[in-house]
Q: What sequence folds into this?
């Protein structure tokens, strides 16, 4: 699908980065809300939301914390909210799905296949830990499989349909493209679909131009040219490289502290808004303009902010 504007998503905190990795990672509801407002002001039209326990920074499925963050963001910005159903390590399928059933957001992410999802290799780089759970959690990821079976995908998609929530299909490898084609064939998904290609996560494809081109071309073959919109993530130091390639290929982009903690080599980003500002500067150099929230809603066919339940 061709579009005139570029959708920029800001992923504010995530679950793969740990508080000890950056002093700027937002943890409390207030910090996440402030990050979302800054990112929207910088030009992000979509805010991708995880929440954390404000006492120790651990990812949490707590519905009350989600409610505080979502209502705070809705009061201050008209940005599209995309709730994560990825959750965090150890969360049940029910916990991951609960925010969609409770809040009926315009969008929610859905990881489209099971995978090794690991950050254990980062532990050796951290000298001081803020909270006891962090090192244990990071090392435990060496033996973690992120489960997204065909049954749970079917169940998630049914929940999305019932709540008029548009799924953002997160694709970490080539097999997940085939999963999309299969679920389309079974009628559990409808065209057009919206896909987030994720590169650079240990357990998924690396952050290379070839990886991104392969995923996009495979989707064109499996789903059909013109039947999907897409965005790209480059986890870690390749964030801007992969996002720049995505812009040149006609895709949309996601940046933010969930995916990358640095604004330049060795320099921490103090906010996701800095990363949003940087990718928008790059997009404008390519002659592309960022979509505002209402333009993003039109491109993605969203139901609108008036129909959410928060």
A:
């Amino acid at each position: 699908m061709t579009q005139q504007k570029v959708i920029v998503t800001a992923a504010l905190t995530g679950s793969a980065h740990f508080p000890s990795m950056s002093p700027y990672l937002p943890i409390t509801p207030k910090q996440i809300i402030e990050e979302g407002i800054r990112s929207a002001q910088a030009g992000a039209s979509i805010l991708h939301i995880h929440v954390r326990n404000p006492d120790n920074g651990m990812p949490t499925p707590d519905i009350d914390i989600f409610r505080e963050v979502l209502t705070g963001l809705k009061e201050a910005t008209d940005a599209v909210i995309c709730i994560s159903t990825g959750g965090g390590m150890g969360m049940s399928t029910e916990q991951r799905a609960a925010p969609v059933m409770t809040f009926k957001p315009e969008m929610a992410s859905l990881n489209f296949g099971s995978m090794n999802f690991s950050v254990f290799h980062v532990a050796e780089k951290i000298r001081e830990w803020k909270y006891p759970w962090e090192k244990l959690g990071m090392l435990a990821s060496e033996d973690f499989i992120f489960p997204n079976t065909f049954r749970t995908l079917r169940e998630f998609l049914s929940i999305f349909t019932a709540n008029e929530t548009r799924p953002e299909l997160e694709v970490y490898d080539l097999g997940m493209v085939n999963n999309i084609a299969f679920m389309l064939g079974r009628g559990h998904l409808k065209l057009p679909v919206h896909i987030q290609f994720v590169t650079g996560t240990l357990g998924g494809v690396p952050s290379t131009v070839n990886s991104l081109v392969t995923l996009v071309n495979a989707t064109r073959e499996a789903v059909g040219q013109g039947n999907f919109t897409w965005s790209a993530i480059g986890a870690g130091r390749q964030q801007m490289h992969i996002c720049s390639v995505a812009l040149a290929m006609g895709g949309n982009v996601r940046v933010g502290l969930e995916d990358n903690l640095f604004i330049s080599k060795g320099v921490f980003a103090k906010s996701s808004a800095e990363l949003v500002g940087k990718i928008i500067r790059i997009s404008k150099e390519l002659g592309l303009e960022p979509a505002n929230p209402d333009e993003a809603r039109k491109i993605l066919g969203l139901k609108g902010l008036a129909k959410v339940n928060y």
Observations:
- Residues 240 and 279 are 7 Å apart (CA to CA).
- The first strand starts at residue 5 and ends at 6.
- The chain has a mean pLDDT of 96.
- The two ends are 31 Å apart (CA to CA).
